[in-house]
Inverse folding.
């Protein structure tokens, strides 16, 4: 047996991950690397807003099964649990392919796949397994509470002058259209790639049922101007875009509080530059 660390100890991921080779077949082993949600703004926000805890390996295994049943991407099969290097790890099917970021790739097909994912609407937000779910009508109020709890712990100075405006934004934000399964930290390395496209979704620990507007605005943050147009082209081949603009500021504040894409100055983060560049709104 040989063991290769993949992202073990990388604080930008929720788990240690190893490839374990048995001379002819391979498996993936993984377990959470963090002890408490307070380890980062992202983990604390994920836990407080959506009730997600990647330390629960049984829940993680069931989350892989949830995504497999959606049939949007291939998803590795959970193979059980094992004692590994001093504690329990989740065993997963190994899927061959490459790892990469989205970079300047054509994301038209990605837009189609996300639209297929959005064909599974929910009227609750929380974890995907139904253990911690709340009616979607209360999302804005709960999101404000979580932002007020999380942001001062990690970016106190960035938020301090803006709390009145933040409260106004969430108070004025309309209720989300519906919730969808999403990852709160989408990136290219959560997929195994084949022929230049995401083939299998292999990292699902930060899954949640979240407003469709939040998911789409996260994709806007991740993609460049050209890719946004490609994404919209693919998405609208399957389903129309919802009305996003009334939700923009609140969605971006949630992403900022969770530091999903870093922690830029709040006023810069809320500027309408994506709209000017032909974004989703």
């Amino acid at each position: 047996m040989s063991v290769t660390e993949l992202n073990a100890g990388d604080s930008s991921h929720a788990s240690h991950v190893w490839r374990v080779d048995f001379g002819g077949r391979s498996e993936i082993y993984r377990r959470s690397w963090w002890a408490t949600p307070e380890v980062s703004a992202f983990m604390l926000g994920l836990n407080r807003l959506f009730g997600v805890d990647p330390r629960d390996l049984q829940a993680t295994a069931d989350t892989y099964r949830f995504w497999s049943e959606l049939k949007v991407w291939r998803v590795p099969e959970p193979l059980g649990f094992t004692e590994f290097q001093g504690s329990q790890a989740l065993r997963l099917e190994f899927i061959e392919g490459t790892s990469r970021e989205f970079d300047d790739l054509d994301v038209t097909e990605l837009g189609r796949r996300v639209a297929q994912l959005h064909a599974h609407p929910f009227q609750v937000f929380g974890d995907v397994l139904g253990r911690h779910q709340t009616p979607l009508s209360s999302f804005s109020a709960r999101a404000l509470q979580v932002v007020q709890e999380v942001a001062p712990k990690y970016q106190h100075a960035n938020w301090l002058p803006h709390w009145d405006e933040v409260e106004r934004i969430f108070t004025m934000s309309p209720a989300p259209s519906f919730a969808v399964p999403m990852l709160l930290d989408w990136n290219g390395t959560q997929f195994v790639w084949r022929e230049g496209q995401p083939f299998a979704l292999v990292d699902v620990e930060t899954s949640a049922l979240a407003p469709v507007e939040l998911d789409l605005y996260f994709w806007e943050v991740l993609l460049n101007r050209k890719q946004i147009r490609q994404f919209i082209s693919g998405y609208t081949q399957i389903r129309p875009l919802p009305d996003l603009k009334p939700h923009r500021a609140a969605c971006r504040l949630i992403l900022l509080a969770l530091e999903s894409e870093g922690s830029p100055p709040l006023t810069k983060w809320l500027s309408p530059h994506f709209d000017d560049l032909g974004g989703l709104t």
Q: What stands out?
A: Residues 274-278 have pLDDT under 50 and may be disordered. The longest strand covers residues 15-21.
